[in-house]
Every structure is written in C-alpha cells, then in structure tokens.
Design goal:
The complex is a heterodimer of chains A (223) and B (394). Chain A has 7 helices and 10 strands. Chain A is α/β, with parallel strands linked by helices and 223 residues long. In chain B, helix 10 packs across helix 12 and helix 12 packs antiparallel against helix 13. The chains are: A alpha/beta (223), B alpha+beta (394).
Chain lengths: 223, 394
C-alpha cells in the first residue's frame, strides 16, 4: 500500500537547513493498522504530509498503491488524495459554514458523483459513525467528539484505500478519544488500511504495528 | 450549479459585508442607468417637440430643370394627389421698404395661399394672402410683426401702405411670431410676404419657374409618403437624375439634437462606467480579504481533493455573483428613482423609463467587472499549497 524508500525532506528555516526527514523508509501493507509515534519536532507532520500527498519529498521514492507520487502534478495529486486517502485531522478541519451532511458530501462532489448516489453514500457514512440524527447541524453546534466523527465520515465516504489520521484524539478528552479509536478499530476490522500518527503511546499501542520516528528517521518498535 | 449555490451561501453568511461590498457596484449601476435613462427621456420629449414644429413638411429645391421647368399650375395639379398634402412654391428676394415710420431692408417672400397652413403660421391681425390675390397680381402684402413694428411703428397697421422698392403695397395682415421661437430664428429680421405673381413683377432677377417649394404630409399620412410621391414625380420629370433636385425633410434639427444627446449619453455613461470600475476594485479588495480569511477552508478543500480549477471557479463565482446582485439591486433602485422623477416632474409630461439598452449594457459590464476583478483573488486562492493553507493560523 505504502512503499517509501529513502525519503528526505529539507526545510530552510532562516539560514539553517532542517532535515525533517532523513532517508526514511516505510512499508505498510493493505488492511494493516499502523501507528506512527514520535515526539513533536520529530518529522511526524512532514511524514504525514508526504504520505497524504499534501507535499512532495525532495529525494527518495514514494509509491502509494503502486502510483509513483513524484511524477504527478498538483491537480493530479488532488485527485489522488480525493480517491485514495481519507484524512482525519487533530483539529477536525470541517468547513464551518457547511452542515455535517454537506461536509461529508464535499469529497463526493469533487469526485463528480451523481446526486442520488451521493445521498445514499453520505447517509451510510454518517450512520457508520452514529451521527444520522445530527446531519443538519453546523460543526459549531456539535461537540468535539461529534465533529471528529463527522470528519471520519468524510474520510470514509469515498471508500479510500488508506485512512490517514493525524493526532485524531489530540483535541479530545481520553474517553471521547477512546470512542474515536474504537471507530478506527471497527473500520480496521472491516478491512480498511489505517495509518495513525500520534505522540501518545497509549493510543499508538492499540495499532497492530507501531513505527517510531525521531529526528527524521524511522524505526520499527514493539510497544 | 454547485458553485453558484456555494457562492450564494458564502455571500449570505455575511450580509452586511456583502451589501457594503456591492455598494460601489449599486451606485455605479444607478449612475449609469439613471443618467442615461434621464437623457433619453429628455431627448424623446424634446425631439417630439421639435418634430411637432415642422416635421409634417419638407422642402424641395430644383437645381437643374433639364429644360422642363415646373410651373405653379403643375404644382396645383400635384396637390390634387392623395399621397401629398399642400404644396406651396416660393421665391425670395430683398427690397428696401419705406413705411410710415422708418425705412429698411426686408426679405420678400412671394408665395401662395397654401403657405400659411403649410407653415402652421398664426395671424396677429388681418388676413393671409388669398388665391384671388395671387390670380389678380394684387399689390397686397403681409408683414411679420418685426417688420410691422419697425416700419410702421405699431402692429395695428391693416389697410395702410408700405412701399417696396418704390411700389406701393397695401398691408392686409400681420403675422404673429413668438419671440425666440424657432420660426423667428430661422426667418429673422423683417419679412414681407407677397403674392408670388406680384413679386415676380416687382423683381428683375426672378423667373417664373418654380425652383423651390414646400410640401406637407397628406391628411392622415406621413411625410415619408409625400417624400416618396414627390421624389417619384420629380425623377420622372427630370430624366431619372437624382442630382437635379433635392428633397429635405426638416429633421436637420432632430439630427443635431440626437448628435448632441448621443455625445451627452456617452459622456455621462463614461463617467458612470468609471464609478462601476471603482466598484469593481471594491469587490476585488473584499475578495482578497475573503481569500485570506478562508485560507484554512481552502486548505481543507484542497486536502480532500479540490483541484485548482474548482477553487478558482468557486471564488470567481462569488465575485461574479456579488457583482450581479449589486447590478440587480442597482437596476431596481434606478427604476424606483426614475418612477419618482417621472411623478415629481409630471407637469412637464416627460416620461423617464428604464432604457432597455443601457440595462443590458449595465448587466454585461457588471459581469465583466466581476470576472476581471474576481480573477486575481480567485487565482490567489487556487494557487495556495494545501499544507500551507491547512496550517494557516494554527
């Protein structure tokens, strides 16, 4: 699924070159539930951006579901993100002016899915996260946990190959966070590939496999 | 369709700002539509007034009679036709007039009885020339009131005598001329009307051939009908030579009017267009603010798969919709203003109505302004990198 070899990414901070990723390699197979753990400043976010095709590496090769990501244009990457990846962010990243339903519907609109099919899929996704009765609420009218569940519904509505979660529990209390993790377990049980990025060991160890990132280098760990 | 819905929702989420943004466009459209409609309304009413003056007639000048000159009897024959109205030949000359009070140079018009009705003249006192005066070569004349006052000292001079180049004529009538009216402007000074038969005798230089005459529209018909008929008759007579004569309807004044007003329209329209452009800059300004404010939203949309084009069209649509809403409001307000003006000046009997042409121009112009001034902010939004936009402001 994810096939990363010797990925490097260098940022220029002032005059200083910061090596956010230093020849990092990562392999994740279909239907795996992998957590990536590391302290802040370890290159976690950069790794997540590159896995999520939001950013492109300076060096190395990255194949997502067999596609050589370096070779694609910005618009093509947008289409790849749309079809293959479902994002769940720490700060939910819902569009505040749109209702829960419309937020979930948005990726399907970008895929140009026809209206009847869209309605059916949005309803199914919301049901899966248990928010059918909240469909017409704006994000501001929902609790943090509910917002994150809307975000998960938005991530799964396109049936992506990969669900990429960046600190999905970071903004939630531990009980709500666990509920969110439980949803990921369910999704995993249903055959989804999940990559979960976190700095929280308790969260990370719930995955089948954990990798550790420190100073831009990745190592396999047993938690 | 989806983009339109999104644009409307985004605009309606901040109504006050939307209205303030549109204000420039609203005022610009109002300036354009109201000014141009006012000019058009005024033009229509003035043109109507001008055509009321003399649009029911035309003048004919024969420059080359090709050996078959027109005589007055032929004109009489032509005036029997149903597609022409009155015909009045005329000859002009000048003479020195000796009145009871003063002497002076006067313009002489030799014509027929038909002239009076054809020119729509009015008598101050006395009568106009009669057909009998023409037939008898009578030594009678009609003065305009300027001539009466100047030569005789007063207008009540019916029956008195005036000498034109030494020949004595009896005054039978004095014409009423409004000061500053168009007829007095075009004639000017002192004018004396004689039976043409009498003038031809008085004058050494004039010949009996008709070279100039007026034609009026037939009863219930138009000047164009008469023009067609007369042109046909003259073409036949003068060996199909268009150069031999000229027929001119009295719309010269109207043409002058319309060229003045079209310049005025362009001028005012240009000024209004500038205010529309200023309104467009206001739209661009707010769109730039909006793009910055919504950086995070742009990032989210891009992350979940919006392409550059999608973002571009979303923001462009917003700018265009803002402009078009402003345009619609502006047109509505213009309509209200024009209605009010029409009511207020109802005594003038001028109707100011929305001019379809200028409304169309306003709509197209607003659309173009929305596109042009929306493009830069929309492109700025579209070019944002998803990670930069996502992490903007936390």
């Amino acid at each position: 699924m994810i096939d990363m070899n010797d990925i490097s990414k260098v940022y220029l901070v002032g005059d200083e070159r910061v090596r956010a990723l230093d020849r990092a390699s990562l392999h994740i197979y279909p239907k795996e539930f992998v957590s990536i753990i590391g302290p802040s400043g370890s290159g976690k976010s950069t790794l997540m951006n590159i896995i999520g095709c939001l950013d492109v590496a300076d060096a190395g090769a990255y194949r997502l579901d067999g596609l050589p990501i370096e070779a694609y244009s910005e618009n093509e990457l947008a289409a790849i993100r749309n079809e293959k990846i479902g994002f769940v962010f720490q700060s939910f990243n819902l569009i505040p002016k749109l209702t829960a339903w419309e937020n979930v519907e948005l990726p399907l609109i970008y895929q140009k899915v026809k209206r009847p099919e869209r309605q059916q899929r949005v309803a199914a996704a919301l049901e899966r996260v248990g928010l059918t009765n909240r469909a017409n609420h704006l994000p501001t009218e929902l609790s943090g946990g509910q917002q994150q569940r809307v975000a998960i519904a938005r991530a799964i509505v396109t049936n992506p190959k990969l669900i990429l979660a960046d600190e999905p529990t970071g903004a939630l209390d531990s009980k709500t966070g666990q509920e969110i993790i439980d949803i990921f377990h369910e999704l995993h049980a249903q055959g989804n590939t999940i990559v979960l990025i976190t700095h929280d060991r308790d969260v990370a160890k719930q995955a089948e496999r954990s990798v550790h990132i420190l100073d831009g280098r990745i190592t396999e760990v047993q938690l | 369709m989806m983009a339109l819905k999104m644009a409307l929702r985004s605009i309606s989420s901040n109504k006050l700002r939307a209205v303030l943004t549109m204000l420039g466009i609203i005022i610009g459209v109002m300036a354009l539509v109201v000014l141009v409609s006012l000019v058009n309304g005024a033009t229509t009413s003035v043109t109507d007034a001008v055509s009321g003056l003399g649009n029911s007639m035309m003048s004919v000048t024969v420059s080359d009679d090709k050996g078959s000159p027109i005589d007055p009897a032929l004109l009489n024959q032509w005036s029997e036709r149903t597609d022409v109205g009155l015909l009045a030949p005329y000859w002009t000359d000048s003479a020195t007039a000796h009145g009871r009070e003063e002497s002076g140079s006067v313009t002489l018009y030799g014509t027929t009885a038909a002239w009076y009705a054809l020119q729509g003249l009015q008598m101050e006192m006395g009568r106009w020339l009669k057909t009998a005066d023409i037939e008898n070569h009578s030594y009678v004349c009609v003065l305009n009131n300027a001539a009466a006052e100047e030569l005789m000292g007063y207008t009540d001079c019916i029956g008195q005598a005036v000498r034109l180049d030494g020949v004595e004529y009896t005054i039978v009538g004095v014409l009423y001329e409004e000061d500053g009216s168009l007829t007095s402007l075009s004639s000017g000074g002192m004018t004396v009307y004689l039976p043409y038969t009498s003038l031809l005798r008085l004058s050494d230089s004039l010949l009996g051939d008709v070279t100039r005459f007026y034609v009026s529209a037939p009863e219930g018909g138009t000047v164009d009908m008469a023009k067609t008929a007369i042109t046909e008759l003259l073409m036949e007579r003068f060996e199909e030579d268009e150069e031999a004569f000229s027929v001119s309807t009295q719309d010269v004044l109207e043409n002058a009017m319309s060229s003045i007003t079209s310049v005025l329209t362009i001028l005012l329209g240009g000024i209004a267009a500038i205010s529309l452009v200023v309104g467009g800059i206001g739209i661009m300004n707010i769109m730039l603010v909006t793009v910055t404010e919504r950086t995070r939203e742009i990032g989210i949309r891009k992350a979940i798969g919006a392409s550059r084009g999608t973002i571009l069209s979303q923001f462009l649509m917003e700018a265009v919709v803002l402009c078009m809403l402003g345009c619609a409001l502006g047109i509505f307000l213009s309509w209200a203003i024009l209605q009010t003006v029409t009511t207020v000046v109802s005594s003038l009997e001028i109707t100011f109505s929305l001019d379809g042409g200028v409304v169309l121009i306003a709509v197209l112009f607003c659309f173009v302004i929305g596109l042009v001034f929306g493009l830069y902010p929309a492109n700025k939004a579209a070019k944002m990198k998803p990670i930069d936009a996502l992490h903007y402001g936390g």
